Amino acid sequence: MMLGSQPRQGMNKLVAKGKSSEPGLQVISLTPAVPFAESMDKSISQFDWSTTSLGALPQWPPALRIAVDMMQHSPFPSALAWGAELTVIHNQGYRGLLSAKRQTLGCSFDALWSDEHWQVIGPCVFKALQGQASFVEDTPIRIDPGNGMGQAWYAFSYTPIRDDQGAVAGVLHTVIDTTASMETIGQWRELATTFEKQIARYMADRDHIWQLSRDAMVMLKRDMRLHAANPAWQQILGWSEDEVAGMPILELVHPADRPQIRSAVLDVLHGKGVEQIETRLRHKEGHYRWFSWSGRLEGDVLTAVGRDISQEREDAIRQSEMLLRNSQRMQAVGQLAGGMAHEMNNLLSGIGGSLELLQRRLAQGRLERVDNYVLLARDSVQRAMTLTHRLLAFSRSQPLSPDNVDINRLLEAAEPLLLQALGPEMRLQWQLDTAPWPVYLDAAQLENALINLCANSRDACRDRGQLTIRSVNQRLTGSQASDSGLPNGDYVTIHVEDNGHGMSREDVTRAFEPFFTTKPAGRGAGLGLPMVYGFVRQSGGHAWVESTLGKGTRVSMMFPRGEALPEPEQTSAALPASTARGRGERVLLIDDEANLRNLMKEALADFGFDVSDATDANSALGQYRLAGTFDLVITDIGLPGGFSGRQVAKAMRLLNPEQKILFITGFTEQPIEQQLLSQSGTALMLKPFTLESLVEQAQRMISC
């Protein structure tokens, strides 16, 4: 823009760039606003702020930038103390108050005023950091800047400066010269007050908080219709502001919470504040989320702020459910201990009484009824063995030998055993899938589970009725898998259904509890269904009971799909174990239980085996290395000294890969590797077992 040759006085102050080449003409160039860094005082913009806790200048937050800009243009000496370290940023007027020899920019505020003035300044700074502004004029401070101008008196103003989230992030320190007259002091005070109000208005800008708040914020009219909602509301609940504009807020509130909301709104309209009301609001997708609300009335508008507490409530509910499950588990443990003690006391009493009478008759030289006492004791022992096996199955601690099996072939092979368990007047009906998937499980344990279910059905039908066994392929996806607690995938389900008297809803919920039974006293120990449940869960499956009084009961067992089976091979019939006695075959017996080991050793020796025994893994390996080859090694899995029967077997097979090994165990925390059991010349027996069955198994393995 070009002006006349005779510019008005003062016009030269507007010159921005250069002069015209024509005499008498003055050129004024208007340039756009400069960036933030360039608009600052050079002492601030050229200072290396990266060495301070504020970081490099381009990284400063918006609130700090605005505060610095306003501080620079303040008509009186001002300084900002920002951040946790109260880093100092000041204008030129403030710099003139301080010693020219000191570095002031970027230092901490308490270091800047660390002399005797801090006793007056310090409490005011801490008050400002707590959000309270103050103007100190009653105790003015005397300062000597060291510039030869002498000392002057000043009063200080302290104003809290808040960040984008509304928290106090710094302090504005305003200095007023009080050496002038009282009128001058009043003018400066008015200027300082005006400046503080400008900052307060900006930092309290509702739109700024409205946009950046993480809490849901809504404005309601007196008729409880939505007037406005902030972005956090839209993000949490999925509704856009246009979708809910003018909508009655009660339409989004859960029906059960609406009376509480109506009451709270009435309180606000009568001038009472509302704090911490928890309620549910409907998400756009249909589910509800929990909020903790507070609100106040401003004119005709009710402003409410809500914090999303859905996750907190879910965590609390999950914790409560876990505590409930732990309580129920402790009740089950107590019931299990009581039932176990009752059953074992009965069995031990039968064993002890039989042995006592047997000892008395032998001492008297009377042999009548001796066989009866022995049979009674053996029957009690057999029942105790069955009880412990069922307990191991319920606790999912029994050693399993799972394999991929054809479920139809397995069920058909088990039919004679099932018919025997059902009795002569029960009808067995099969409804098997024509092409079932293979399943991965322990076939012997499945037979035991089916026998238990058949016995339960026979009792429920009072020895006369019908039992139906179905097999079906089933694929679990989505909600089905989540309801059963199983992963998505393919499963084979076996349903065992009878037409007996059924069970009540309360009894169904307790069906898998140990020692719970609906049978008359003396007809059952209450371990059949718990054993079935434990076996199915240990096999990676799921079991459940469905029943209706007067219509029957159905027990379902779901097992994971196994791998494809090879084509069956034509094999010759298995030869029964030889009934001939042993001929001095060498057996190494390893067990730390002395009484049981001696009994087993005697039984094996009576049969004709040459038996060596050991109490632990180290002595067993020592004998194995020194005594040469053994025809069979019988070892307990749980051995003392930290060296298990598994490790013994692996060490021996390093010396002799063809070594035959029979594992015996009553309980093991670590499952036996299927790869180890599937090796040729390997077998497993579960304690307790009869000595006769041990001898037969040893004879069978040696003769193969």
TrEMBL record:
The protein's enzyme class: transferase
Superkingdom to which the source organism belongs: Bacteria
Domain Response regulatory: 586-702
Keywords: Kinase, Phosphoprotein, Transferase
Domain Histidine kinase: 339-563
Entry-annotated residues carrying 4-aspartylphosphate: 636
Protein name in UniProt: histidine kinase
Kinase is among the record's keywords: yes
EC number: 2.7.13.3
Cited CDD domains: HisKA, PAS
Family matches, as InterPro entries: CheY-like_superfamily, HATPase_C_sf, HATPase_dom, His_kinase_dom, HisK_dim/P_dom, HisK_dim/P_sf, PAS, PAS-like_dom_sf
Catalytic reaction(s) noted: ATP + protein L-histidine = ADP + protein N-phospho-L-histidine
Domain PAS: 215-272
Record-linked Gene3D superfamilies: 1.10.287.130, 3.40.50.2300, Histidine kinase-like ATPase, C-terminal domain (3.30.565.10), PAS domain (3.30.450.20)
